[in-house]
Design brief:
The protein has about 350 residues and is mainly alpha-helical. The chain contains 14 helices and two strands; from the N terminus they run H-H-E-H-H-H-H-H-H-E-H-H-H-H-H-H. The protein has a two-stranded antiparallel ribbon with strand order 1-2.
Amino acid sequence: MFSSAKFTLTAAALLIAGGAFAQGAGGKFAGVGRAATDKEVAAWDIDVRPDFKGLPKGQGSVSQGQDIWEARCASCHGVFGEANSTFTPLIGGTTKDDIKTGHVATLKRADYPGRTTIMKVATVSTLWDYIHRAMPWNAPKSLKTDEVYAVTAYLLNLADVLPADYTLSDKNIAEVQQLMPNRNGMTTEHALWPGNEFGAGKVKPDVLAKACMKDCVAPEKVVSQLPEHAMDAHGNLRDQNRLIGPQRGLVTDPNAGAAAAGAAGAAAKPATGDPAAAAIALTQKHGCVACHSIDTKLVGPAFVDVAKKHAGKTDYLAGKIVSGGQGVWGDIPMPPQTLPEADAKAIAAWLASGAPKAK
């Protein structure tokens, strides 16, 4: 059994390596993997650089952006980019003089309460690219190209960079770059970008210094672990990590860990005969766990707390899942969710029955 498992893992590793290196029949690893197709490369190669390489054609107006913003962005970032108690503000701290000079004066003020996105970002391509790839929070990459242009235009209008009647497009975005409040606040004289595409200059010596390769101190290996009595002092750590990015968190509660494993298994394959496992799988499938945990408050309330507050209210909960809302659990709103009606009702029925763990 051990030899079989070892062989399976080795084969899986070879397949992954083959895919990563995209080897063809005559490559370094002949016979393993294949070259990526143009369509596969295009699906991943969607970033937009400061020189606007990769920017697709399209356009969107400030007014169009406002409608999209209020429907899909304001729940987290505020109607005017002022955000809420969880997310930091996007707009504020810049002036018309900053637009003229390209340097945000507020960045030098120690008494200013915080730094907003528009104060720091130097390139409009950064805004466009991030919105395109990562927003909205609950449905990244769901905005169409013209909608990204519109949302970017609305953001810049909130910062007094663009007038209310402006239409942003691939044809005029370079002109808008010349109005970014902190456009001169970024330097390329750091040797962190290959080539001279963004201008050559004197390279700072601190990033080109040669490392000392003699009399080196042996690195220390630091290992720490929570003592057993404190492992679950604040709830299961794994349940307090959003399912976004590589980190998943340590399972500190064996019972919660079993439930999480059961939920993960339910998400990987259809549940058979267990409504709780099926509902938990749906919360993962539709991204509910990005803001909610079963028994620990994250951005939103824990599922068990929702179950206690609205026990037996299946129809009410199904309606709230679809329509979203604000004020019931604090000032952080939940955006409307796009999921099949049957899935919303299944999750609502699970919550109304007390949010039981999977069997």
